[in-house]
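Lecture notes, unit on protein representations.

Consider one protein chain, 568 amino acids long.
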Amino acid sequence: MSTENVQNHHPLYDEILPDWVIARDCVKGQRQIKSKRETYLSATSGMRKRGMSAGQEGLKQYEAYLLRSVFPDLCRPAINALVGTMHREEADIQLPEGMEDVRLNATLEGEGLQTLLRRINEAQLITGRVGLLVDVPDGSEGIPYITVYEAEKIINWDESRRKDGRLKPDLVVLDESASERTSEFGWEYVQKHLVLDLVQAANANEIIGSNTPVPPQQGAVYRSRLMVSSEINRQNEGVNRQTEVTAQGAGSVQGVIPQIRGTTLEEIPFIFLGSVDLSADPDQVPILGLANLSLAIYRGEADYRHTLFMQGQDTLVIIGDIGDETTGKSRIIGANNSLDLPMGADAKYIGVSSQGLGEQRQSLENDRNRASELGANLLSSSKGGGKEAEETLRIRVAARTASILTVIKAGAEGLENALKFMARWRGLDETEVVVTPNTDFIGDQFAPKDLVDLMTAKTLGAPLSRESVHRWMSEKDVTNFDLDEELEKIESEEPIKGQPDPEAEAAAKAEDREFQLAMLNAGGQGPGPGPGPGQGQEQRVKGQGTGEPDPDEDPPQGRQGGRRRRGR
């Protein structure tokens, strides 16, 4: 196969690339935007008339115009806020026992699966596209890993329909070009393209050799090839993956059949992830609306600040006096100076009118409000400072996060498919791989008054058990313990200072009941209705036949405590 056209792009790639560039530049921020100069901020007609070449006055004015402008940093905070919302709680990732090593070490950079999922969701929000390649290190005993490819790196692809009716890739071309160190201190931009495709089993046997033949019934087999432009870098490639490294445009290239313990794959282990699905065709860019609005604010800010600058540059006009031209002297104006003009002469300042500044300012304010709605304040409460009712917040967020939900579900499904490729390649049960993302974006709001109201209702007879109250508290994230654990911890706690001790209260009540029984027995009535009026008190004072101590002595501890606790 000739590799001279390995840099060719898919038609859909060229169609959507400008949107990816805008979104990526806006996320990078002001420095990136200003480095593109007239791509995002055009020079005025007056600047062009004065010349835009080096040293010309028009270019100098444009440099000042560009310097005064301010790009609103809206996209990056919006992405951070949305990703933080998506991952308010970690995704639930279930793996076969033999793949637990991947949970905390899924990429060559040593990223865990939770971090990898965050990267995937961030890329989905920025460009609406990301790719995952399940790669395998050199050596048949290597453990496969996942490599993430940004949208701009997936330059070409093709699909065909299999016997089961599903579309699967036949070709994926990945641009891995980057600056690499070619000497002790030197760097060079190296063009590299990784080509992934399928070959027939018979051809695969020719590539692999006779040691690990591919069964003829397997049909197509996954193949990997890497084309590198630099001879120096070709010698350093192929260490981290099973692939053939060759020069670009070198003609026919056999490639390598990646395998683990002799196991090959019948399909390319590459996953396309969009913002709504796993189709190979690019999806729309979720952040593009906010990016375009940010650029509109940027240009409006530049014009507004340029107008303010021009308003401070009024020009002095003198009518009827040309004395300076005849004498060759320049006039000095400002504090502590004066103008001496002949009779009939006139002097005045003229400048740019401020009539349109109010409209410019209002237009910028409107654009910023719209950007706030689209971006970082997506999940904030309504204006006014008051706390938004929980159900109202839920309805508003549900209406606004439908697109976020599709993004996070597509990201989780894509990661799950990549992990299933990995499990299948390692001979494990891929059905045990399950990735369930967090879809609770706002959580349950908790107010202490809600708990007080709930307990009051229970006290007044509402049919609520302790278990129901505890379940409600768990749903509100007030506690992470189950009911039994909670009760054990309560029993092991020391009483709060100033609060009554429940055990002491129970003991006091028991002693108080014993005292009441003693009073009844003193009246000779046993546990019945008790003595008549005055009898109990009289016998208790005399202490006759009651078994009680003399009243001049200190009363028993239980009796004293019982009276004190009952407020007697």
